[in-house]
Amino acid sequence: MSWALWEKSLREAKWLLVGCAALMFAFHLIRVWVTSHFTMGDVRQLLEFAPDFVKGFFAVPPEVIAAPAGRLAIGYDDPLVVVIMSCWAIARGSDSVSGEIGRGTMEVLLAQPVRRIDVLLSSAVVNLLGAATLATLAWLGTYVGLAFFTLDEPVSARILLPAALNLFGLGAFLGGLATMLSSCDRYRTRTIGIVVSFYVVQTLMKIVGIAVPDFSWLKKYTFLTVFEPQQLAYHFWPEILAAEPEQSWRLLIDYNGLLIGLGLVAYAIAALVFTRRDLPAPL
Amino acid sequence: MFVATTSLTKRYRQVEALADCTLGIERGEVFGLLGPNGAGKTTLLRLLLGFLKPTSGSATIDTLDCYRDSLLVRSRVAYLPGEARMFRRLRGHDILAYFARLRPGASVRRARDIANRLGLDLARPVVLMSTGMRQKLALAVTLAPQTPLVILDEPTSSLDPSMRTEVSRLVREVRDEGRTVVFSSHVLSEVEAVCDRVAILRHGRLVHTQVMADLRRQHRITGDLTGGLEDPPPAIREQIEIVPPVNGRVTIDAMGELAPLLGWLSTLPLARLRIEPIGLQAVYDRFHLADRT
What we know:
The structure holds 2 protein chains of 2 kinds. Chain A is mainly α.
């Protein structure tokens, strides 16, 4: 594959990646600082007032959330963090085929002796590397924060690595999904619309599945069931890992394997579709 | 044949974009494609590049199947799309360098020379270039590699007249290097000036192929009849076609050398005599006038 294709993908992604990475790092750094202002007792008191149906949404027991490590782990599931990762994955994934077709640049690119699979691969690898960078910077933000700010209980940043990996899994899955839909489409806006709609429906399925016991089966059909950074971090607390090592590792592999695996399958389908489809004229 | 299509057909659901197209292009030929919008010109070009999968039939370039061997085909072809759009954030010289890297053996220097001939400011970012400047940039990208086949789809759209002349000159230079050119355009005078042979498409079908050398030897003679029109002498009868007079005005289409006809013409009772080359417009109108009226 030509290095020029890699460079192009990197160049196009550069500023979005820089922006998302800075936000991700800053958010987790600030989160440690904010966490340092509360004690376990403060949070426990706050959680006691939460209604039962709200407690149903906690992926881990309330006392785990109250602990400093638990409070930091929530940061990996925070809406802002999810939005940053989703923005990266959907923006880049949707651009890979339908974005290029819409802009007319796919036409001039494929007029050169380059393979379609190489065009897609360069974009997919940059998307995955970007998601890995964002997850790493999220964890680094926590790590640096822990080095600078003192919490009421010492926390090792290492226990948050599974949460960061789960965040990467989210990026890998959404990036793969967006790339797959982009490979069948010619309008980037439509691709984005479909992915976002899918995401919203999946979120609603998870909420309904948790809130309404009769509909708990819905949780089986949403990928967000395996996006549980708090739960993964909790299972890697030293005492939990020591007590149930098999279950902890099984959970890590199952959750992240499913997200990353589904993402890779979506990339493979995208490659299959894109290498066989007609290339429409630009609009 | 260097480029050959056999019963090439592309259908989109109910729409037949190209139907049963069989043609051949010799190596070193400049081959024109003519037809109104939607006639199937761009579909044919996209099929040649392997962008589209044929519904039926086949296309080959240098004996390679255009769809199955698309990568090898594209290493032999330089293609200028109808509306070439470049990466907007890059500057002109970055674009030339980028495309030179994508094509082994391509020369940035040659691309720069062509851009200079077209009067293009390469320091300007693409996003700040006018449509004409972007077209010049795309032309420099397309004409720089020494590929055996160059496909140009509307190469002079959005260019001013002097640049159109320069593009025609560049196309002739490509032919003089022994390379083949497929030239699609709506500008008949341009096609007439550079092409050796022209195919006319109508509603997705190839309706006529015209050898330009033959066309250049054809003339149309018109005049007002002032008396009875006598039959032509047997020696030139095969060479002419007399269209029945309309409102006293007679039209005679003459093929081949004009000199043997002049003696006979001087004997005819004609006023306001005009002799002009038939030109591509007349051939084109033969197939497309009905669509316009």
